[in-house]
Amino acid sequence: MNYDIIVLGSGPGGYVAAIRASQLGLKTAIVEKESLGGICLNWGCIPTKALLKSAQVFEYLQHAKEYGIEASGQADFGATIKRSRDIAGAMSKGVQFLMKKNKIEVVMGYGKLKKGNKLEVTGPDGKKSELSAKHIILATGARSRELPNLPIDGKQVIGYRDAMVLPKMPATMMVVGAGAIGVEFAYFYATLGTKVTLVEFMDRLVPVEDEEISKELEKIYKKKGITVLTSTSVEKVDKTPQGCKVTVKTKTGTEVLDAEVVLSAAGVTANLENIGLEECGVKTEKGKVQVDEYYRTNVPGVYAIGDMVKGQALAHVASAEGIICVEKIAGQQPHPLDYNNIPGCTYCAPEIASVGFTERQAKEAGYTLKIGKFPFSASGKAKAAGAPEGFVKLIFDAKYGEFLGAHFIGMNVTEMIAEVVVARKLETTGHEIIKSVHPHPTMSEAIMEAAAAAYGEVIHL
Q1: Which residues have a Cβ under 8 Å from the Cβ of 441 and sit 6 or more positions away?
Q2: How large is the greatest C-alpha to C-alpha distance in the chain, in angstroms?
Q3: What digits encode the pLDDT tens for the residues 349-381?
Q4: Is the peptide bond before 350 cis (omega within 30 degrees of 0)?
Q5: What pLDDT is stored for residue 145 in this prediction?
Q6: What whole-number distance in Å separates Cα of residue 40 and Cα of residue 53?
């Protein structure tokens, strides 16, 4: 069975690459061992957002009086989980439709790279078949990283997949890791009524974000009743029939904390094992496949994209990499991906969105800065929506006005960040943002106001 391109893995990197290949007239197959759509559609991006929306609706009900409405409600944990799974299932079926529409052959089974541009597929029935192609794109994604002191058993010590399908809501939970996954689950469970302790080894929450964003989120989470422990490591977990006794090491010493369930949310590990990399001589470094700017490995005809290569482990990054990879194979001349203009979004409440340099990174890069901030407490739309928490922070180069970075925390800011991504792509300056009329009343006005604040022209502060 010969193809132009075979894609191993059908996550947002793999299935997007396959569709683009088909659009460009290449005979394409995709190999998937579990469910079309990969982790993102089935266990990541989409179903977690469904859970978070349920938590947000419940939070609205709890504060209904503030909007002049008499309402009450009770969280049905089982129904919340079912809604999330139903949405994931529907999205996976949507990918099936896209495969048929684009005439991409779907091969279900476990794929393993073989020499000579071949892929051995072990089907669900255990039978093996062999596919061959001029080009094979590896897009096997990643899984929960398991900490040595925190072995996951799926019941008392769980990973993010387990956290999405727990049979009942725990009374207490410790979330280990305060990156995007950790702070999202902390918000979800705390809002529904679980007493949550959030533990982070670094000195602040969401450590990849700008430091002011981290401080704001910690302040808001503590207000929500979440216990926050930064600069803290988990030393060991002793499991009992009643729950877990977790030994943690803080700045002040060692203590033992109780939690019914411990969620390990300490990042992800690329899926590189048992896919034939060693046998075929594909080079790896520090747990990632080595590739060039067009995702070519050192082995001719073999490519890798997504979480298994260096770069942000984000769905939209994998999709962009897949498109660039395929377009290069097809003889086009795509521009390499600018990894400093990739938006990052965290869907806790309030949401976090950012792109480009943090303030610290910009200073370390040698720039002289103009920084503007605009709080949502001064935004008419935010106040009307009952969401005055958070702010917009913009960073510009003082010399040329270059738009260096943007950092948002607030309601729906993940929908606002794309403006900055496009602006930076077009090399827009701070003055051009100020002179671009933004609609009133909107949350997005805060971008214009923050730019104006950087240049001493802000109106509403």
Answers
A1: 379, 380, 381, 384
A2: 69
A3: 999 999 999 999 999 999 999 999 999 999 999
A4: yes
A5: 87
A6: 17
Give the sign of the dihedral formed by CA 141, CA 145, CA 151, CA 155: negative
Integer Cα distance of 20 and 395 in angstroms: 35
Each as own residue / partner, the long-range contacts of residues 327-335 (CB below 8 Å, 24 or more positions apart, any chain) are 327/20, 327/24, 328/294, 328/295, 329/5, 329/21, 329/26, 329/135, 329/303, 330/21, 330/24, 330/25, 330/26, 332/24, 334/294
Q: What is the structure's pLDDT at 72?
A: 83
Find the radius of gyration of the CA atoms of the chain.
Answer: 23
pLDDT for position 281: 96
Using one digit for the tens of pLDDT, what is the confidence trace for 93-140?
A: 999 999 999 999 999 999 999 999 999 999 999 999 999 999 999 999
Residue 73: both structure tokens together? 């409600």
> How far is the C-alpha of 405 from the C-alpha of 396, rounded, in Å?
7
The predicted pLDDT at position 1 comes to 67
- One-letter amino acid for residue 370 of the chain: K
Residues contacting 137, CB < 8 A, separation 6+: 5, 6, 7, 8, 14, 17, 295, 303, 304, 305, 322, 325, 326
**Catalytic site residues?**
440
In one-letter notation, the amino acid at residue 34 is: E
Length of the chain: 461
Q: Measure Cα distances from 139 to 113, 200, 202, 391, 453 in Å.
A: 12, 30, 30, 36, 43
Contacts of 170 (CB under 8 A, 6+ apart): 189, 194, 259, 260, 261
User: Are 335 and 342 within 8 A, CB to CB?
Assistant: no
- Which residues in the chain show pLDDT less than 50? none
Is there a contact between 131 and 107 (Cβ–Cβ < 8 Å)? Answer: yes
